[in-house]
Amino acid sequence: MHYTLKKLTSLLIVMLSVYAATAAGNMLSFTTSVSEDTTYVRTWQEMMNEEFVIQETEVINLDIKEHPSWLKIDLPPLEEELYLHFESPMLDSVFFYHADANGLIYGDTTGVAFPFSSRQENSPHFLFRVGPTEAASTAMLRIQSGKQVITVVTLDTKYEHSSKQSGRDIFFGFYSGLMLVMFLYNLFVYFSVRDKSYLYYVLYILFVCLTQLVLNGYGSQYVWQDNTWIAMRATHYSGVLSGTATILFAAQFLQVKIYAKWLYKLCIFFIGMEILAFVLATIGMYQISFNLINANALFSLILIVGAFMVWRKGYKPGLYFLGAWTVFLLGVTVFVLKDFGIFPYNDITRFALPVGSAIEVVLLSLALADRINVLKREKEAEQEKRLKVLKENERIIKQQNVLLEKKVDERTKELADSNKELNQTLTELRSTQAQLVDAEKMASLGQMTAGIAHELNNPINFVSSNITPLKRDLDDLFEIIDEYEGVDIESDEAKEKLEKAKALSKELELDFLKAEINQLMKGINDGASRTAEIVKGLRIFSRLDEDALKKADINECIRSTAVILKSTIKSEAPLIQELADGLPEINCYPGKLNQVIMNIIANALQATAASGKPYEERFVKVVTEDAGENLVIRIIDNGTGMTDEVKAKIFDPFFTTKKVGEGTGLGLSIVLGIINDHKGTIDVKSELGEGTEFIITLSKGL
């Protein structure tokens, strides 16, 4: 690689030497002088009479000025047409005037502020035709630019100009080709190794090459051409982009976050300055932007110090960067010193900057190539370290497995003991739950028994009270019958006995006796029927322990519950039954549904009684509805109602609002469990002081 670099450098020097020899043609002597127009409005005729300062050096340095500068070139008689070559491609505007003693011979207007296609000559530099003239003449150039103007003015024949331009084109073609090769090579490496250093370096190569092409006029000639907006800002933009790419690449390549944190902070600061310069150029503040870009160039010297310090800390890429950057800065130094007359102005010094950048690019590419080896060694070291870690992890895992197996055995034994205790506790809980459910059933049964006793007592008392008068009436009737049976029709006493029997019938009011017997018999029959009805209701309701699904009529379940609760209903609130006709029987647990209905109705009756309303204003309503695939039971009361807090807890086990000893708090909890067993739902709507509505939805397809 070092041999290749040496040959490449030699080839560049030979090319520049050949071009320099070609450029050294016969140049006519002429005088160049400089003046300024602080009024901005003077014409070339007015400036002809102004005092000009003669330029003693070949290089003309006009610095950066807001007002126009004027160049006055005194030309001798010209035998042929020549090109006045103004070598500063990025001037904003140039107004050219060629005059002799008789007046204006030729005029032209050009500059990057004007479309490239308007130029008289297709050249990256500014060319103006002069001659032939028989006498001495004067060329006047009005120059204005937001950038520093450093230039050389030459007079060339067409052949000399073509030779010079061909040499420049060949050089920059070779330079661009070299930079393109480096660009593609490093781009390929980036996609291979995915190292950000290569990505930033690719951007650096691209923008450095772009900057050199812009500074030598090739951007206007081949890229944006007639786009004057970009042309006016191209120098600033390319400077900002190359400066930013330089900072990003240097920060990544030198690992300044690790080895030079102070330099990392400076990198951030100068990137901010580059962004500011970009913005200033965009809004048209060209001179301030250009000065800021030049000030940011001082960061190059800081990078030399930073690279040296990074290298001293043992990071080898710092040495590569130091060497490559030193070569580039030497090229910059030669390029700048020729503008101050220290070095001669020729193509070698004029192209020192692109040559230095090309050599730097090659050196940094070699450094990055070595970085691949560094990355490879780091990767191998990392893999070796990872292998050691894996082996250590394997050892630890084996050791942990032994401990884990021991702990698993211990934990398994503990879990087995805990499982045994949990099973025992679960058995006890189930037993307790069964006892609690039985207790609630017994509470319901106690309430039911009290109602049944009261209901049965009425018809039985009615039957008992009718037995005594019925026996008395029957005795009287039997006495009359005995009198009639004792009459012998053929005896003489028959007439007397008949009269006596008739008198007895009249005395005992036989007709009333018959009517009373019928009434007593009817009362006994009604009492027996009422008793049978109660027994039937009891038989339907008593199916509490049935666990098999059966077809049942919901309306029948409600009616049987109403029979059981009849005595409670009479004392607490009327029960209104709005039962839909024709409801289909559904698969259910009838006894459990009876318990649900009785529990909710009983609670509703108690709530209405506790409301303090008169009996006539209280009500409990039971409504059944056919809702398509479901049957709906609504139990509505106008009792005390509930708060949201109470409503949220009513289905919790052991929650009750009743006084101690008046309720177990299991009723509605069991109700919810029974409804869940039926895969149904139960909803509650309630307002405090207004009443409560329970909505039970049961599926027909259970």
Structural write-up:
There is one protein chain. This protein has 702 residues and is α+β, with helices and mostly antiparallel strands. It contains 20 helices and 18 strands. The protein has helices at 2-23, 44-48, 158-193, 196-215, 218-222, 228-253, 256-259, 261-282, 286-296, 299-312, 317-339, 347-350, 352-485, 494-507, 510-541, 554-564, 566-572, 590-610, 644-647, 667-677, and strands spanning 31-36, 53-54, 60-63, 69-75, 82-86, 93-100, 103-110, 126-130, 137-144, 149-151, 153-156, 550-552, 575-578, 586-588, 620-627, 630-637, 681-687, 691-699. The strands form five sheets. A six-stranded antiparallel β-sheet has the order 2-1-4-9-6-7. Strands 13-15-16-18-17 form a five-stranded mixed β-sheet, with helices on one face. A hairpin with a 2-residue loop joins strand 6 (93-100) and strand 7. The chain is elongated. It starts with a helix and ends with a strand. The relative contact order is 0.05. Mean pLDDT is 79; it is low at 1-27.
